[in-house]
C-alpha cells in the first residue's frame, strides 16, 4: 500500500516573521551581509551591461523585486532594470551586449535581451496612470531613478541598486518596511491606487507572498477604491489572483480581499460565504471552513516527485470554490436543522461561471469544476462500504483528478469532533485501499469497455452514429458493475442488448 495523505490540524494563520534579520543593518553602500551574499551570484554579464550604459552616458539600475529578494537572501532570477536611456538608445546598447534582443515591450519603454543564459529586461524611467474609464495605463517617460521608484506600487519594491557599482537607492524607506513586515506605498495610497488600480490586487498578493501586514492607509484605500478594479482587464486581475493562491500564505491575501471588499468585485462568491454564518450554531461557519480547507489542502500537496506537486493551482482553486453553492442552497427545516442539498452541483456551475469571467483557460475551468462537483461523492462511504462497482465509478469519474480529489476530500474534514474525524479518516483509508486493490487486479486507471467502437460496429453491422455511443455506454456500465468480462462475454452481452431493443 502506498503512503496516503493525512489531513493535518488547522493552522493558526499567524503572520511569519520577516525574513530580514532585524539586527542586520546596511553597510556604507546600503547593503546588508545577507544581500551581499545573494548579490555575489549575479551574473558578470549584468555588471558588464551596467558599464556599457555608463559609458554611453546613461544610468542603469536593478530595480523592484530583485532588490527586495536580495535583502531576503534570495538570489534574484528576474533581472529587471530601469534606465535613463530611451528605448531606441537602450535597444542599441543591448544589441551590442547580448546574443539576442527583442522589443515586444517597446511601446511601454521595455527592451529585452539575452546573453548566454542570462535574460535582462530594461525599461526607461517612467510614470503611468489610468485615464478615467480606461483599461490600459497611459505611459510617460520619467527623468530620474527616484521619480521612477516613486511611481512603484510599494516601498519594499521601490528600492534600486545602481549598476555596475551596486549602490543602494532607497528613497522611501523600503528596507525599514521590509524589516517591519509591512506594505506601504511610496506616495499616498489613494493616489497610488488611482494611478494603477491593479495595485489593489497586488497588495493582497504581496500579503500572501511575503506574509506582510498592510498599513492602515493602504487598507482604507483598498476599501474605498475596490470598485476601480472594474476598469482593469480580467486577465490582469486573474494573473494577480493566481499568484496570490500560489503564494506561501494565500489565506492572508484572501482574508484581506474579503475584509476590504475587493472580493466583492473579484470573487463575490467567497464574500457570500459569510452570509451563511448562523448565530444559532446549527451549522459550521462556511467561510472559516473554506479557508481552513485551503490550508489543509496545501499541507497535503507533495514534493516534485509526488502525485500532486505543490503549489498546485487546481487543488487550491477547488478548495476555495468547493462550498460556494451553499448560500444558494441553504434551507431551514421545521425541526431546526439546516441543509445544503445539491450545493456540489450548483457550486460546480457557479465555479465555471466565475472562472470564465476571470478568463481562466478551459482545461483549468473543467478540472476545478469537476472537483467541486465530486467533492461530496465520498460521503456515505463511512456508513456503508461501497460495492466494487461504486469504487470503479468513483475512480473513472475522477479520472486524472483522482489524487487531487483524495486531497480535497481529506482537507474537507474540519470537524473538532475527534471521534468523527478519526472515523472519516479511517473510512477514506479503506477506500484508498480498495482502489489500490482493484487497480492491481483490473488496471483501474484505464477502465474501458471490453469492446471498442470499431468492434461494436463490426458486431452489430452498423456504421458510425448515435447507436455506437449508446452501445459503448452500455458496455461501460456493464464493466463498472461486473468488472472485466473479456471480449467473448462482452459480445454476448452486446448482442442481448441489441436484440432487446429490436436491433435498432
UniProtKB/TrEMBL annotation:
Region listing for Disordered, in residue ranges: 1-31
Keywords from the UniProt entry: ATP-binding, Coiled coil, Magnesium, Metal-binding, Nucleotide-binding, Nucleotidyltransferase, RNA repair, RNA-binding, Transferase, tRNA processing
Keyword flag Transferase: yes
Low complexity: compositionally biased ranges: 1-11
The keyword Ribonucleoprotein is annotated on this UniProt entry: no
Residue intervals of the HD/PDEase domain: 282-447
One matching Pfam family: PolyA_pol_RNAbd
Essential cofactor(s): Mg(2+)
Top-rank taxon: Bacteria
Transmembrane segments: none
Coiled coil: 421-448
Alphabetical list of NCBIfam families matching this protein: HDIG (TIGR00277), tRNA_CCA_actino (TIGR02692)
Protein name per UniProt: CCA tRNA nucleotidyltransferase
Organism: Actinomyces ruminis
Amino acid at each position: 500500500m502506498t503512503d496516503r495523505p493525512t489531513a493535518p490540524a488547522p493552522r493558526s494563520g499567524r503572520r511569519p516573521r520577516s525574513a530580514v534579520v532585524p539586527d542586520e543593518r546596511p553597510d556604507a553602500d546600503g547593503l546588508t551581509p545577507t544581500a551581499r551574499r545573494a548579490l555575489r551570484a549575479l551574473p558578470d554579464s549584468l555588471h558588464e551591461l551596467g558599464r556599457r550604459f555608463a559609458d554611453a552616458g546613461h544610468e542603469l539600475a536593478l530595480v523592484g523585486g530583485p532588490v527586495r529578494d536580495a535583502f531576503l537572501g534570495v538570489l534574484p532570477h528576474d533581472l529587471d532594470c530601469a534606465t535613463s536611456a530611451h528605448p531606441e538608445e537602450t535597444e542599441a546598447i543591448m544589441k551590442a551586449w547580448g546574443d539576442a534582443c527583442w522589443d515586444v515591450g517597446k511601446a511601454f519603454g521595455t527592451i529585452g535581451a539575452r546573453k548566454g543564459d542570462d535574460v535582462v529586461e530594461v525599461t526607461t524611467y517612467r510614470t503611468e496612470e489610468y485615464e478615467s474609464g480606461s483599461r490600459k495605463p497611459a505611459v510617460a517617460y520619467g527623468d530620474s531613478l527616484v521619480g521612477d521608484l516613486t511611481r512603484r506600487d510599494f516601498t519594499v519594491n521601490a528600492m534600486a541598486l545602481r549598476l555596475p557599482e551596486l549602490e543602494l537607492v532607497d528613497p522611501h524607506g523600503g528596507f525599514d518596511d521590509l524589516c517591519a513586515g509591512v506594505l506601504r506605498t511610496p506616495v499616498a495610497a489613494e493616489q497610488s491606487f488611482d494611478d494603477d488600480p491593479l495595485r489593489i490586487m497586488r497588495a493582497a498578493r504581496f500579503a500572501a507572498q511575503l506574509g506582510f501586514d498592510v498599513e492602515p492607509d493602504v487598507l482604507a484605500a483598498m476599501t474605498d477604491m475596490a470598485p476601480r478594479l472594474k476598469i482593469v482587464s480580467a486577465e490582469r486581475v486573474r494573473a494577480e489572483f493566481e499568484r496570490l493562491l500560489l503564494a506561501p500564505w494565500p489565506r492572508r491575501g484572501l482574508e484581506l480581499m474579503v475584509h476590504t471588499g475587493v472580493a466583492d468585485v473579484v470573487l463575490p462568491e467567497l464574500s457570500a460565504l459569510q452570509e451563511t454564518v448562523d448565530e444559532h450554531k446549527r451549522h459550521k461557519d462556511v467561510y472559516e471552513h473554506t479557508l481552513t480547507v485551503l490550508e489543509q489542502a496545501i499541507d497535503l500537496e507533495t514534493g516534485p516527485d509526488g502525485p500532486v506537486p505543490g503549489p498546485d493551482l487546481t487543488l487550491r482553486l477547488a478548495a476555495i470554490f468547493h462550498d460556494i453553492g451553499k448560500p444558494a442552497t441553504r434551507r431551514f427545516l421545521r425541526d431546526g436543522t439546516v441543509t445544503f442539498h445539491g450545493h456540489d452541483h450548483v457550486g460546480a456551475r457557479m465555479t465555471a461561471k466565475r472562472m470564465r469571467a476571470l478568463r481562466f483557460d478551459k482545461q483549468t475551468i473543467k478540472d476545478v469544476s469537476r472537483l467541486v462537483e465530486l467533492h461530496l461523492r465520498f460521503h456515505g462511504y463511512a456508513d456503508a462500504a461501497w460495492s466494487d462497482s461504486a469504487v470503479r465509478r468513483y475512480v473513472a469519474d475522477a479520472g486524472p483528478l483522482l489524487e487531487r480529489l483524495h486531497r480535497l476530500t481529506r482537507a474537507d474534514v474540519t470537524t473538532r469532533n475527534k471521534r468523527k474525524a478519526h472515523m472519516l479518516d479511517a473510512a477514506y483509508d479503506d477506500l484508498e485501499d480498495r482502489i489500490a486493490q482493484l487497480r492491481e487486479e483490473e488496471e483501474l486507471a484505464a477502465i474501458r469497455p471490453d469492446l471498442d467502437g470499431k468492434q461494436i460496429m463490426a458486431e452489430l453491422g452498423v456504421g458510425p452514429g448515435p447507436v455506437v455511443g449508446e452501445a459503448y455506454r452500455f458496455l461501460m456500465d456493464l464493466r463498472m458493475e461486473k468488472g472485466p468480462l473479456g471480449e467473448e462475454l462482452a459480445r454476448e452481452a452486446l448482442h442481448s442488448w441489441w436484440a432487446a431493443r429490436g436491433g435498432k
